[in-house]
Amino acid sequence: xxxxxLIADSSSAMRAFVERAIGIAxxxxxxxxxxxxxxxxxxxxxxxxxxxxLVDTHLxxxxxxxxxxxxxxxxxxxxxxxxxxxxxSFIRIERALQSGACDYLLKPFSIPTLCAKxxxxxxxxxxxx
Length: 129
What we know:
This protein has 129 residues and is an alpha/beta fold. The chain has a single domain (3-128), classed as Response regulator (Rossmann fold), CATH 3.40.50. It has helices at 12-25, 38-47, 64-74, 90-98, 111-128; strands at 3-8, 29-35, 52-56, 81-85, 103-106. A 5-stranded parallel beta sheet has the order 2-1-3-4-5, with helices on both faces. Strand 1, helix 1 (12-25) and strand 2 form a beta-alpha-beta unit. The model has no long low-confidence stretch (mean pLDDT 87).
């Protein structure tokens, strides 16, 4: 079953790149929503049916622990998410995974790597539901 995806990144170019890559790869995504900051991310999570999040750690407005908690509080069911970041530090990666991320994708990334990680994450999320 196709998933509704929310891409949250402060870069409009990165959001467009990810959405285009998903379309080219033919991933099972029914809709792609976009958020440019943490407030917009939370507003969209509350107002739309979103099945999966792709979120950058440098999203303006909150750090990943804060928005992960806010998302959990905004919805009854947890929304699986994959984190993207240019930060390769072990501490950042551990924090993202401890906050509930299903994976961590280091920027810059290639389209095949993005699509492989997204496909695996979407398949895992679908199997859990």
